[in-house]
Amino acid sequence: MSAILEVDNLRKEYRDFNLNVSFSLERGYLMGFIGPNGAGKSTTIKLIMNLLKKDSGAIKVFGLDNVKNEIEIKQRIGFVYDQNYYYDELTVEEMKGIISRFYADWDDELYRSYLKIFDLDPRKKIKELSKGMQMKFSLIMALSHHAELIIMDEPTSGLDPIVRRELLQILSEILQNENKGILLSTHITSDLDKIADYITFINQGRIVESTTRDFLLENYGVVRGKKELLMQTDKGLLIGVKENEFGFEALVKDKARAREIFGDKIIIDKPTLEDIMYYQIDGKVV
User: Fold this and answer.
1) Helix (H, G, I), strand (E, B), or coil: what is residue 198?
2) Enclosing H/E stretch for 13
């Protein structure tokens, strides 16, 4: 499958923050874009959407330059914000009437079907919708013009677990169409433990990892052992070392190598994506 999104040596410099990232997403997959608040996730997405001007680098969507072909690209993208940017006093149906005019491929029948699936009353005003229902409405707007690439910036933030699970299930169903792709930016990594195909982890404006979720979970490990073992480890093997009165715990990128060095003197647990992010961000490296 061809890449639906390519970000190559993308740079944006501010006085106190510099972004320099590269990654790509192929059709048929969901990429979790993770990192702490302030890591550069939203800046990257704004650059992809040409809402900010890049300093250098290249962004291609559907193989097209995101600046030169902005109008064509945005006809084929569905974008879901982290909060409501619709007119509060308008009804769902009135808001749809405004948005639908911008899309040549708007499908009113598809829109109606999503209203039923999400149990969303088109007569309700936007301000009368719960945060979860507002997010569902945003997703309906993103899907009803047959978008090929769905870009979501912190869509599940502030939602209760039931609504979050419903949204993630919908995203899984969308990807049954292998022509589509999803970039899901979030700091709630538990949302991605089951649904994501790829993970791109950004911290302080740099990509720490961009690979498959399975590779991360199969090769990384959370190691626990006695403090004296820290003296016999390879430099850089242990990430985010946490010491306590009983010993230490840390992250390793290569748990097979850690087992080679320490044998049965350590315990290695399978990490979550949250573990991988936490240890990389907070703690010393040995």
Assistant:
1) strand
2) strand 3-13
